[in-house]
Amino acid sequence: MAAAAAAAVGGPQPPQAEVPAPGLALDKAATAAHLKAALSRPDNRAGAEELQALLERVLSAERPLAAAADGEEAAAAGGGGGPGAAEEEALEWCKCLLAGGGGYDEFCAAVRAYDPAALCGLVWTANFVAYRCRTCGISPCMSLCAECFHQGDHTGHDFNMFRSQAGGACDCGDSNVMRESGFCKRHQIKSSSNIPCVPKDLLMMSEFVLPRFIFCLIQYLREGYNEPAADVPSEKDLNKVLQLLEPQISFLEDLTKMGGAMRSVLTQVLTNQQNYKDLTSGLGENACARKSHEKYLIALKSSGLTYPEDKLVYGIQEPSAGASTLAVQGFASAAGTLGQLDSSDEEDQDGSQGLGKRKRVKLSSNTKDQSIMDVLEHKSFLEELLFWTIKYEFPQKMVTFLLNMLPDQEYKVAFTKTFVQHYAFIMKTLKKSHESDTMSNRIVHISVQLFSNEELARQVTEECQLLDIMVTVLLYMMESCLIKSELQDEENSLHVVVNCGEALLKNNTYWPLVSDFINILSHQSVAKRFLEDHGLLVTWMNFVSFFQGMNLNKRELNEHVEFESQTYYAAFAAELEACAQPMWGLLSHCKVRETQEYTRNVVRYCLEALQDWFDAINFVDEPAPNQVTFHLPLHRYYAMFLSKAVKCQELDLDSVLPDQEMLMKLMIHPLQIQASLAEIHSNMWVRNGLQIKGQAMTYVQSHFCNSMIDPDIYLLQVCASRLDPDYFISSVFERFKVVDLLTMASQHQNTVLDAEHERSMLEGALTFLVILLSLRLHLGMSDDEILRAEMVAQLCMNDRTHSSLLDLIPENPNPKSGIIPGSYSFESVLSAVADFKAPVFEPGGSMQQGMYTPKAEVWDHEFDPVMVILRTVYRRDVQSAMDRYTAFLKQSGKFPGNPWPPYKKRTPLHPSYKGLMRLLHCKTLHIVLFTLLYKILMDHQNLSEHVLCMVLYLIELGLENSAEEESDEEASACGPERCHDSWFPGSNLVSNMRHFINYVRVRVPETAPEVKRDSLASTSSDSLGSLQNSGTAQVFSLVAERRKKFQEIINRSNSEANQVVRPKTSSKWSAPGSAPQLTTAILEIKESILSLLIKLHHKLSGKQNSYYPPWLDDIEILIQPEIPKYSHGDGITAVERILLKAALQSRMNKRIIEEICRKVTPPVPPKKITAAEKKTLDKEERRQKARERQQKLLAEFASRQKSFMETAMDVDSPESDIPMEITTAEPQVSEAVYDCVICGQSGPSSEDRPTGLVVLLQASSVLGQCRDNIEPKKLPISEEEQIYPWDTCAAVHDVRLSLLQRYFKDSSCLLAVSIGWEGGVYVQTCGHTLHIDCHKSYMESLRNDQVLQGFSVDKGEFTCPLCRQFANSVLPCYPGSNVENHLWQRPSNKSIQDLIKEVEELQGRPGAFPVSISSETNLSKEMESVMKDIKNTTQKKYRDYSKTPGSPDNDFLFMYSVARTNLELELIHRGGNLCSGGASTAGKRSCLNQLFHVLALHMRLYSIDSEYNPWRKLTQLLEEMSSQLGNEEQQPEVPILYHDVTSLLLIQILMMPQPLHKDHFTCIVKVLFTLLYTQGLVALSVKCNEEDRSAWKHTGALKKNTCDAEKSYEVLLSFVISELSKGKLYHEEGTQECATIIPVAWSPESMEKYLQDFCLPFLRITSLLQHHLFGEDLPSCQEEEEFSVLSSCLGLLPTFYQTEHPFISASCLDWPVPAFDIISQWCFEINSFTERHAEQGKALLIQESKWKLPHLLQLPENYNTIFQYYHRKTCSVCTKVPKDPAVCLVCGTFVCLKGLCCKQQSYCECVLHSQNCGAGTGIFLLINASVIIIIRGHRFCLWGSVYLDAHGEEDRDLRRGKPLYICKERYKVLEQQWISHTFDHINKRWGPHYNGL
């Protein structure tokens, strides 16, 4: 065979014509082996040709041909003739050939043996769970796969788990990216040495086969690609091609996974240029190869010409083999199409713009390096493969293949170079892509692997101009969306900015490229290249200037904008990502002196760019009004590099500062932003919509502030420290538009600001000055101090969780800076300033997280209001910080009143910025402060406490920073040039404070009060007139000052001053005609700052002469000034502190203060109230009164509601205080009175107008979850652990019922047990009542109300109108008394026999109700409807247990089981026993009484046939025992000993006419107790072994004839044993039975205990029932005595019973008929059954009665154990790994949340499971989110998480990925809510799930 094949192949025929022998296909292996042998010969040319021919045929790219040629083969291979078959066939061939005749799997294993596994390199795609360890990472992008992470040792490291966004690869073993200490065990060994050399022949075939295979793949890709016609996305076609190629690419991917040996072969193949040239030149005679080459050229051409306006550059390239044809063809065709392309492109661009947008601006792009953008030349397979990968928009499979190769070093370099070569092309494809998001992720997936490696990045930068390419590509990208800037000079502006409305910015399409750029800049070697290259810096500044002034806001003055644009998101994101982050990257490399040169470069080009910008927007000195842009990246670059230069590089600041004129220009725009912030907060921009507020907030928000507001303020600080202080101060007040307000006159006109905005703008201006002068972030604080200040500010606003602190503290945005959040310094600072508050848990309240709260000493010394104001996004946070500060002072007793913000000492200024303090010592500021103090003192309008606070703060700052101690002798010997502003003699605040100012000349409106006064004065005395002429009265105009200074500076610095001379007075300042004329008046002041302060003290304290200089009493004060009493307090304290500091600074001041205090201060002038002010005062007063009235009303309403709640809650509590009138036979009973919470009327419930209780009905399976062992089940966390539900209560009861139904008559079975363990209906109430007709109209109104919250009115759901508790039905209250008080006659002395008769008669009397059902009253209708509700609450499968569907027995069973469910659940809520006694916790809210009435009413509709009534079997001896056995064919009834006694009790009681007599109740209980006791004895006898039985039989028989034999358990037990021995019950004990028998030595004590435990559950339920029916309180007791207490409470114990000797349960027995007779009757039934079925008979007798309380599954300590097991686990239904896995916490079932895969009849799996497992209640843990979700019926809610991290926080969705630990308290609360059925009441956020979970 082999020979034939060889001949067939090796014949001399030309390869094309070769037709394979049919046998050939079957023997690929032999062929392969033959070829391998041929190739192994030294002369292997023949073999090679032969192989080529074979491959040519097998891998033919023309699919139709391939299919035809290989038709027979395919058929032979069983593949059919389809095109897919040929591909598969080809793959099979390749595998065979690679293996060279052996098996492919063996081949794979062999190759793997040679894998030097030094790197992991596992590649993953989005959503994969990986780890990142910051302690081990060198690069911030480092990541590890879960396996490597868990195998390495990262204990105590700062790591987190994360879900990959874009995909990634494992870096384990790569020492370039991570420290070796973090490697896992597998990759620690440098294993290259001990791996043997790869034998030559192993991979020989691969080297021949793979080039053809890859070429074939490329041909497919070429074939499949069609240029999208007319921009219609052809994604469908592309995806089709990719689907076809899936197997081929997967095959390649598998090859890469074979390890290093195979990878190096692949690398050879992919990078070999010769191979590529030979195969793809397209010059061969093969038509199909030619065609594919043409397609390739077309594709290249179409991509190269994305920019039609760029003239072609191809011609210039010297023609090389691959590119020549392309260049020539391209040239020709392009020249033809250029014209039309151009026009169409223009239209297309404008068309896509949409209306109302501005025209794009195009830059002439002759500056760019054309080769970067347009030339692509492919020289190897790798290059073309990448080209197609990009063309096809990065298909996931290709990406993974290319990345899987990366562990091969040689490949890594080649691939990185190829990637860089295609960078421009990637950008173009990305811009055109419709799926730019996915594509971005895939690009970054690749690039982050390449560029995170510093060595590699450096190499590519040097060899491939990486930086040039990146910057150029970014510039090109942004150029496509530029528009003309409208800032400043709209018409003539030459500046262009990006248009933030474009998709490119809106969708962040640029981020992959920017993030690559940031990534490579984080490497020092690369960043240095960048900072040294002037050309690059110029280009980059050019790029940054595109963002300068983008997203300009223009203030709307007339009407509100119609459309609020949301472009600001895009603008802020773009500035942060494209400008700020690269800047931080560069800054991180400018840390030391040696890098000064870099800073000089950046600053130089930055200033040049700024100068160009000012020229382009035509800026001189006034900004255009009503415009603001928040984006000044050039200013911020400049500022940050300055800051770095001074802080780290010891550069001289002045050497990098420009001239004064430039500084004046630089400060304008940042100052404009600060003023605009104040305007926005003053609601002056309200017509621009909400988005402008959004911008103001984003500008200061934690992620942006250190790239936005901080640099801006720093730049202003630098300008202020170098410019003339008077000029700066007046500029500030002019920018804030409050110049006109700063006048001594009481009235003024403001031409640029409405009166209502004046106050907040003045506050804004002063606050800005305070921040400017006291912020030290860039002026000398160390990094740790900054961190501490930031942290304190955040903590003072609110307590914070650890993660929110991390988020709120602006980190240095560059990850390599070393100040990473979570780093060592962060934790140490946090522990220094804050205390941890563990998560407290208020039940019913919200779940708290662990919080950090500031330590007391932080409030005391470090609370810094300035920092808080700077960092608050919402103004309310400032208030919150002040409130917390106030609370601290009150609590610590430091200050009782309302404190002012404390003054905090500042870090010393860096010497370079000393000039900043000149602002505090300039006359302009002093005049402003003086004026404001005066105005405040005189109560002028529009001033606030905040203004005063800031004024004092500035004075204090000035005193703290006074230049040098001035000598007192120094008179005001100022130079003569200072004469023009003679307000103050000098510029030092300390001396100016004491300077008295006598007269001031002001301009006031004619209407002002000053004018009238003055005119009188001037006529009366001439002295004033003479004063006026002498010019002593001070005149002051800020604007004039500013203009003058500006003029001086300009003239000094600018010879052509004539161009910029401005008129001295600007048109703005002439008042508009309509306003009253201004006139000049002179005010007599005669005050100094010191005297004003002292008067202010009097005014604030409200007392005359309240200030007394403290140093007069205690001279010490002047020596140690730091006095704690002054550090906290209000305005008075502040004034005292300032005066003290002033006195300290100069003796003169001290003297003057004493003098002022000596003069008796004249009273403050009485306040003149103008009409307008009176109006506002009245308004305030009225408001105050209204507020008080409202408070009063509310309080009254609350108290009424409270008393109402109390009465309403007591509806059910026993009214035992009603006096018993013993004389009358029937005492008068007051009927129960109910309040209706809707109409508010009170009254009894009547037939016609019944009242009802608001109830919530819900199906519950909690009871069914009880188990009989105490250990709660654990959640399975490995394959071995499984949970089997057969030991649950529900399962046991199910088994019992089905066993009974097998052997006994169905109707009798249904009376022998209770159901409702699963899906039982639980009824709970909030205790409020309402008229049923009121309720109906309430429901109507809810139905019409469209805004429904989380519940469905159609399903009858509503919330209680009073307490808003969730409810879904109303339970009618039975007329008559609330509790059956009138039956509390003393127990009648009837004998038990009489009572038994009465009971039987009453049961037999049908419908013996006061209300006969036949008469349809409202009440009976309501009772029926509520019964329907109860039935519909649970599913049919939980109601129907009968074999004949719909039989009445079913309903009967269901009804008494509802009562059972409610009693059992109440017992569980009480902890499973009644030891605590008392009214139950649910006592007030229990509705069992009403529920019983409803059930009884319906039970009596079914009369039990008196034949079968179990009552007779219990109380009478039946004669004809034998006759029963006669009718064999009919199934027998259930023997009475198999009956469940509690069920019998409920049946008996519900069959009685209501209301029930206490006697009858006791009688029923006594009778049933005898049965129960007998059952206990029988069970006991079955449990013990033969010897014990015979022993007992004898001992008991001896005592049988004693007096109280019927009350001795020994006698009864022996009797039971002897009776049952007659049957087969004890026989045939095979060996298999031994298991059930417990070898216990039964002592009398243990037997007594067993019997008591057997009876207790019944006694508990009965006592509860008695408590509800007759309102008796339950006694409390110890656990040991529960039995005796309950039995005496139930009247089982004879009253004369002495308790001395040990209690015997048998003493409670009270046999209605002779015990031995009735017992033998009962035993007879058992015997007749065990005749046939001894096994089952025995099983039915042993009832498990000791159920433990239900619990949820026990969860493991650490969340990771759950996560690792479940997040990869496959679903048992659909066998896929679910996207959202969840696990049920009740039973441990694993389900797919929202998974369509497991959907059944439109129900998703979780909803379905919640119905099956919890009858509609499901508790699921969502594995991927760590949260718990509750499903309740048709609604669901997120409950929260029971796993918290080390800081006590939840981590929803595992976003932070920190280790999580169980919080036991939370889990307990969850379990509590589950058991008590209170999910609906406690959790508030419910929504419908539409069965989709």
Fold topology:
Layout: H1 2-10, H2 22-26, H3 28-40, H4 45-58, H5 63-69, H6 71-76, H7 83-99, H8 104-112, E1 123-124, E2 129-133, E3 144-145, H9 146-151, E4 159-163, E5 168-169, H10 185-188, H11 204-224, H12 235-256, H13 260-271, H14 273-280, H15 287-304, H16 321-353, E6 360-361, H17 370-374, H18 381-391, H19 396-404, H20 409-421, H21 423-432, H22 436-451, H23 454-464, H24 466-479, E7 482-484, E8 496-498, H25 503-506, H26 511-521, H27 524-532, H28 534-545, E9 553-554, H29 567-587, H30 596-616, E10 627-628, H31 633-647, H32 660-681, H33 690-700, H34 709-722, H35 725-735, H36 755-774, H37 783-797, H38 802-808, H39 824-833, E11 834-837, E12 851-854, H40 856-862, H41 865-871, H42 875-892, H43 923-937, H44 945-960, H45 989-992, E13 997-1005, H46 1009-1020, H47 1022-1030, H48 1038-1053, H49 1057-1060, E14 1078-1087, H50 1089-1101, H51 1131-1145, H52 1147-1158, H53 1171-1209, E15 1234-1235, E16 1242-1243, E17 1251-1260, H54 1289-1303, H55 1306-1312, E18 1320-1331, H56 1332-1344, E19 1358-1359, E20 1366-1367, E21 1369-1372, H57 1392-1404, H58 1418-1433, H59 1448-1469, ...
Antiparallel strand pairs: 1-5, 2-3, 2-4, 6-7, 7-8, 9-10, 11-12, 13-14, 15-16, 17-18, 17-21, 19-20, 22-23, 22-24, 24-25, 25-26, 26-29, 27-28
Helix pairs in contact: 3-4, 3-7, 4-11, 7-8, 7-11, 7-12, 11-12, 11-13, 11-18, 12-19, 19-22, 21-22, 21-24, 22-26, 23-27, 24-28, 26-29, 28-30, 29-31, 30-31, 31-34, 32-34, 32-36, 35-48, 36-44, 37-39, 37-41, 43-44, 43-50, 44-51, 46-47, 50-51, 51-52, 57-64, 58-60, 59-60, 59-63, 59-67, 60-63, 63-64, ...
